[in-house]
Amino acid sequence: MHGYGWWMSMRQGDEKPKVTRELLLRVLAYARPYWKHIAGMLTTILLSTGLSLLTPLIFRNMIDVVLPAKDTQRLILLGVALLFIPALNGGISVIQRRLNSTVGEGVIYDLRSTLFAHLQHMSLRFFTNTKTGELMSRLNSDVVGAQNAISNTIVNIVTNFIQTVALLIVMISLEWRLTIISVLILPLFIVTAQRIGSVLRDIAREAMDINAQMNAHMNETLNIGGALLVKLFGRTREEEKRFRERAANVRDIGIRRAVIGSSFFVIFGLVTAVGTALVYGLGGYFVITDVFTVGTIVAFGSYLGQLYGSLQGLVSAPVDFSTSMVSFERVFEVIDLPQDIAEQENAIELKDVRGELQFENVTFNYKVDESILLKDVKRYGKVENVTAVLSGGNADASSIKRRVERSAASNSAEAGSASQARDIALSGISFTAHPGQLVALVGPSGAGKTTITYLIPRLYDPTDGDIKIDGHNLKEVTLESLSHSIGMVTQETYLFHDSIRTNLTYAKPDATQEEIEAAAKAANIHAFIMDLSEGYDTIVGERGYRLSGGEKQRIALARVILKNPRILVLDEATSSLDSESESLIQEALKRVMAGRTSIVIAHRLSTILAADVILVMDRGKIVERGTHEELIQTGGIYSQLYETQFRGDKE
Question: Which site among 92, 245, 303, 567 is 20 to 30 Å from 202 CA-CA?
Fold first, then answer.
């Protein structure tokens, strides 16, 4: 199996990291807490190597001394020794495996914990520009690959080195000429392994990509959304046919891979047989000419197999080590990413928040700083690399970006002056929301309303200008206290695949049942929950898919009520709901917003009429502000929106 592992380890051999002193020191820093375990592993390696050298010598003594002398007592002792050595070696291997797994799993835990903690502090900008699959690969595949450098690769290198040196010393002491012949066969093995390994590596990559296409097809069509779409359009047979084609590709390349892999073992066996034949041929001649005994050649033959295995491990060690270093580099890339939403060292903790919110000449654009993003990595066999799941295409990211840019430019040209397309999302935004006021944001889609709401809880930082709460700049307060002071309900409600109770208490983990029910009643959702067979312990499904849009929104409102923030930010997305759900939500909103500073993206006239001030947005700017009556009289954008969007509410 050494040969198979050798070519498999070369899957990422084309990635050549710069193994610098700094990188090695950083890698070893993760091994430092486990130095006692590593020292224990080295001790077990030495013991195991020493024991493995004894068995051939016992056979030699048995053949050359015991059997000719017909020494029964010594024969029994050697037989017991042949039983004792593997038993002792087995016990040592169990201890070594425990030490190895302790180091390996410990390093995985340390790396994953560090990675996850760092990602928790990354801004929303990072997540909107990073594929979830890539993050999962960093936390899983790369972390496991990185720990291999400490728990497996380095240990294997040391093990093979010690075994090789020990074997060569013993073999040279037995017969130096046979030892030289044994080593001379190694170049022939290396050339053969490299050539066949290159072919197998290409087939392995192709096989992983074909598997990824099949898995991507399953992911797209077997989730709730995909399955619903297939049924609605009556595409069941077509999808079955498409899957059979991709499964057939997996089958065919699997057969091809197995045949070529088998040929590798055959050729590897022949190369090894050449060395073995030369050793036994010359050794047999030496036995015939009385240069050494039969026991010596038997012992030498046993050592020969061990030597080839150890030398092969040393040959593949650079590839294994470089592969592990690639994984470490990918892990460190995430850990080293700068935090664009950072908390100052002397940040102020917000207390007794009154709820005054000020925007002072705020400008913002969504331009991405490449330094905070992850590099694109080609991952063979990963579903997220399959760009076109149904058609089977695999366009690269740059071509997709070019098409998107051309499409955006075309749409912008067609839209003319009515288009909201622009480079700057917000420009010169200034307003003040006094404690307890309701500020309504209105305007066409893409005008910048949602961007304003994202800046308030500091999901992004403004490019220019300041945002203040009770006179404190958001950049000067602690992120935790800011989060406690602000409650936000987005248009797309997100619920965890868990119980209603767990989703509600996410806002306040120590909430009592009375508090939970009070919040649910305020959001007009308690009666609905109690009608469910499991009540508050009902599982909502992935992203709350088992609930209607109105039910999810009311649970989201109850969650915010339970949090009890002083400032409320919400997207009052009720346009797609039925009249009953909308009425329940509107009634709940009145209770939620009472006494709080509220910033609301208004979709209904009732909210606008209740607003203390209306901010009319267009192309990232506040173009009008005032009450409903004041804005109607101006005859500007608001009056147009009123005629097209809100007049129906009044009627």
Answer: 245
pLDDT of residue 647: 62
pLDDT of residue 530: 92
Judge whether 415 and 421 are in contact, CB under 8 Å.
yes
How far, in Å, CA of 346 to CA of 360, rounded?
A: 23
> 119: which residues sit within 8 A by CB, 6+ positions away?
135, 334
Cα–Cα distance, 34 to 24 (Å, whole number): 16
Pull the structure tokens for residue 81.
């020794």
Q: Which residue has the tokens 């099949």?
A: 214
In the chain, how many H helices and how many E strands?
26, 10
Residue ranges of the chain with pLDDT lower than 50?
1-14, 395-417, 575-576
Q: Can you tell me whether residue 432 is helix, strand or coil?
A: strand
Task: For residue 536, report the phi and psi dihedrals to the nearest 5 degrees.
Answer: -70, -10
Pairing assessment for the beta strands 438-442 and 613-618 based on DSSP bridges: parallel
- For residues 167-198, b (16+ Cβ closer than 10 Å) or e, as one string? bbebbeebbeebbebbeebbeebeebbeebbe
Compute how many other C-beta atoms are within 10 angstroms of the C-beta atom of residue 576. Answer: 11
Q: What is the pLDDT of residue 362?
A: 93
Q: Which candidate, 401, 6, 433, places its Cα nearest to that of 197?
A: 6
Q: How is residue 505 written in tokens?
A: 């208490």
Place of tokens 């030495």: 46
In DSSP notation, 524-587 reads T-HHHHHHSTTGGG-B--GGGTTS-HHHHHHHHHHHHHHH--SEEEEE---TTS-HHHHHHHHH
Rounded (10°) angle between helices 236-288 and 294-335: 140
pLDDT of residue 408: 41
Sequence-separated contacts (24+) of 125-129 with Cβ below 8 Å: 125/340, 125/366, 125/368, 125/372, 125/460, 126/337, 126/340, 126/372, 126/373, 129/368, 129/373
The two three-digit tokens of residue 255, written as one number? 């057969």
CA distances for 436 relative to 102, 329, 592, angstroms: 56, 50, 12
> The tokens 């997996």 sit on which residue?
250
Q: Is the dihedral of CA 276, 282, 284, 287 positive or negative?
A: negative
Q: How far is CA 7 from the centre of its chain?
A: 26
DSSP 272: H
pLDDT at position 504, please? 92
- Local structure of residue 372 (DSSP, 8 states): G
Yes or no: say if 440 and 614 are a contact pair by the CB < 8 Å rule: yes
Give the helix/strand (H/E) hosting 489: strand 486-489
Q: Are 78 and 61 in contact (CB under 8 A)?
A: yes
Question: Which one-letter DSSP state was computed for residue 477?
Answer: B
As a dihedral over the C-alpha atoms of residue 616, residue 619, residue 623, residue 625, rounded to 10 degrees, the angle is: 20
Q: What tokens does 217 get?
A: 């097809």
Residue written as token pair 């935090």: 339
At 46-57, the pLDDT tens digits run 898 888 888 888
pLDDT at 640: 84
